[in-house]
Design goal:
It comes from Pseudomonas extremaustralis. This is HTH-type quorum sensing-dependent transcriptional regulator RpaR. InterPro entries: Sig_transdc_resp-reg_C-effctor, TF_LuxR_autoind-bd_dom, TF_LuxR_autoind-bd_dom_sf, Tscrpt_reg_LuxR_C, WH-like_DNA-bd_sf. Helix 2 runs antiparallel to helix 9 and helix 10 packs across helix 12. The protein folds into 2 domains: 179 residues, Transcription factor LuxR-like, autoinducer-binding domain (Beta-Lactamase, 2-Layer Sandwich); 55 residues, Winged helix-like DNA-binding domain superfamily/Winged helix DNA-binding domain (Arc Repressor Mutant, subunit A), CATH 1.10.10. A 5-stranded antiparallel sheet has the order 2-1-5-4-3, sandwiched between helices. The longest helix is centred in the C-terminal third of the chain and has 18 residues. It is built from 13 helices and 5 strands. The protein has 252 residues and is an alpha+beta fold.
């Protein structure tokens, strides 16, 4: 099958939800032998320390019922070797947790819970398209291959180009459908006043200047700035601004 970019884009255009768009993607790739589809999106992909941040969107079609809980609530997303690899790549790649593969041989004990879960449900092989977005967000679209492990890995490799086109076309529509709350990083939570003070600090205002702008006391402004720095794990105001920028909590 050769996907026509314009035709596929036109098919997604009238669909009004991510779920509907993903269902259509799965319908399109099912004849290629893909049985399960996972999509995730994070407005900020990694913490300031470099650890993966749990995505704000995680959708799994034709997947185990507890997969969302495992990945988003119990920390599997952070130890998923596929996600770790995707965060460092810009091109699609095939992978397999089956015995005697490069991927299996590279797994550490930290990865084993994910590998065991995936293999137990017969989802040992797939391909993933990393999507590094212009606004700094990050998404992946992963399709799992049905069939014997050896054949499945070869099958995934043959369809990398097809999935690349589908994934980028899908993401163009998904970006239009993401809810405002899904676009916000919740890894760090600052109060409205803390964000406001940090925003003014990013623009170069001193605590005295911020106090005059907000009609608050300088002591109150300093309390908000200290609280923001503590939540961000920053040692000083300059580092707090830098981390606020990283998490897209402030703008310049």
């Amino acid at each position: 099958m050769h996907t026509d970019l314009m035709t596929f884009s036109e098919q997604l255009a009238p669909l009004s939800s991510l779920d509907a768009c993903l269902a259509h993607v799965l319908q399109v790739i099912n004849p290629l032998g893909f049985k399960t589809l996972i999509y995730d999106y994070a407005p900020v992909p990694v913490s300031h320390e470099g650890a993966l941040i749990t995505p704000s969107v995680f959708k799994a079609l034709n997947a185990p019922g507890d997969m969302h809980a495992q990945w988003c609530e119990r920390g599997y997303y952070q130890i998923d070797p596929v996600q770790q690899c995707a965060a460092r790549r810009t091109t699609p790649f095939a992978w397999s947790f089956s015995t005697d593969t490069h991927w299996n041989g590279a797994l550490t004990e930290a990865h084993r819970p994910v590998a065991h879960y995936i293999c137990d449900y017969g989802l040992s092989t797939g391909l993933t398209v990393p999507l590094h977005l212009p606004d700094g967000g990050f998404a992946t679209l992963t399709a799992f291959v049905d069939g014997a492990p050896a054949e499945a890995e070869q099958h995934a490799q043959r369809n990398l180009g097809e999935m690349l086109v589908l994934a980028h076309t899908f993401q163009a529509r998904a970006s239009e459908l993401l809810a405002p709350a899904e676009r916000c990083c919740t890894h760090i939570h600052l109060t409205r006043r803390e964000r406001e003070c940090l925003q003014h600090s990013a623009k170069g205002l001193s605590a005295k200047g911020i106090a005059a702008t907000l009609h608050r006391s300088e002591a109150t402004v300093n309390l908000h700035l200290v609280a923001a720095a503590r939540k961000l794990g920053a040692r000083n105001r300059v580092e707090a601004v830098a981390r606020g920028l990283h998490y897209r909590l402030v703008e310049v």
